[in-house]
Amino acid sequence: MTKLLDSLDPDKLRRILVIDLALLGDIVTLEPALRLIKQHFPHAAIDAVANPISGELLKLMPEVERVIPWDKRGADRGTGGFLRVARRIRQKYELALLFHNSIGSALLAFLVGVPWRVGYASELRGPLLTHPVPLPEENLHLIDQRLRLLKEVGIEGKLDPPYPRLEVDRSRARAWLVERAPVDGAGRPLVLIPLSAGYETKSWPAENIERFMNLFGEGEVCFVLTGVEEDREKLEHIFSYRNPVIDLVGKTSVRELVMAVAGSDLVVSPDTGPMHIAAAVGVPVVALFGPTDPELCGARGREVVILQADLKCVRCYKKQCNFNPFCMRDALTPELVYKVARGMIFRSGQPRQGVVGEARAGVLD
Q1: Rounded to whole angstroms, how far apart are CA atoms 303 and 100?
Q2: How far is the C-alpha of 313 from the C-alpha of 327, rounded, in Å?
Q3: Which CATH number describes the domain made up of 170-364?
Q4: pLDDT, tens digit, for every residue of 179-215?
Q5: Top-tier CATH class for 4-152
Q6: Where on the phi/psi map is residue 124: left (φ > 0), alpha (ψ -120 to 50), or beta?
Q7: Which residues have a Cβ under 8 Å from the Cβ of 152 and sit 6 or more positions away?
């Protein structure tokens, strides 16, 4: 396979189509690849086909000019929906970069007539690609998977920073969040906690969240709770006795969720979207991992501490668990998370507010 840049003049390329249907958190990990594409093709406009929810995050990435929604599991389900998406692609593109490893994404790029089509050769879609790239033999982080695809066709280089970034005005975000705080919580460090992570085994249980919140002293912090509407039942089992709470569960759009995260001083999160968003906007993160693998999907950023449950059965990727102890409940105890979180919020006896300067990452057992 020839390198793509042997066939294309980067200075003459004008339109690039990117396809990635990843969910909210995973789409954040596409940002370094988008930045690298723009470095190599500085005069090209980049449009992205994405899940409608995830597409709201792509709009915060300056490399992307237009987002084309593909609601594969909803309004655009089936053959009719596929054809509707194809009709939305009105521009003529010279290059398609397919970061979604489905045959549908390759077929879409083929049918709309993109002459150069790059993607991993999965699901028997090799014949639909002009530059099929073999799937990596080793397991790679989501960021590195995307960068590997580009490297295989000659698109590589140095990125600064090497991790995802989202352009958000954190001062404005904080003001937006403080407006929603109780009167007694507006001036305190804001600690955001997502209540769920898509499925139960990834989520921190309600009893752990409540115990963690009540380890803080009277008037030390203000908590921000986020989640989808279905999490409101879980919220009924969580109460903060000593510190105020901003309840945003089921009340935010994607953009408002980003504002809530960016306005916080610390995010304590399981493996879910706000974890990746926080790292990308520069908010310190305590990331809680049990059944998923942080080496494959953990947050990367300026200050990320990953707590991986210390049990033999972790990284199982099971959506149901019958084991006792259960990793997210019994290994990631409120006391352990509190110790780490408190050290990140308070330095030298003073509350920390704002962005930190030094890079810091680690895995704690």
Answers
A1: 28
A2: 8
A3: 3.40.50.2000
A4: 999 877 778 999 999 999 988 899 999 999 999 999 9
A5: alpha beta
A6: left
A7: 1, 133
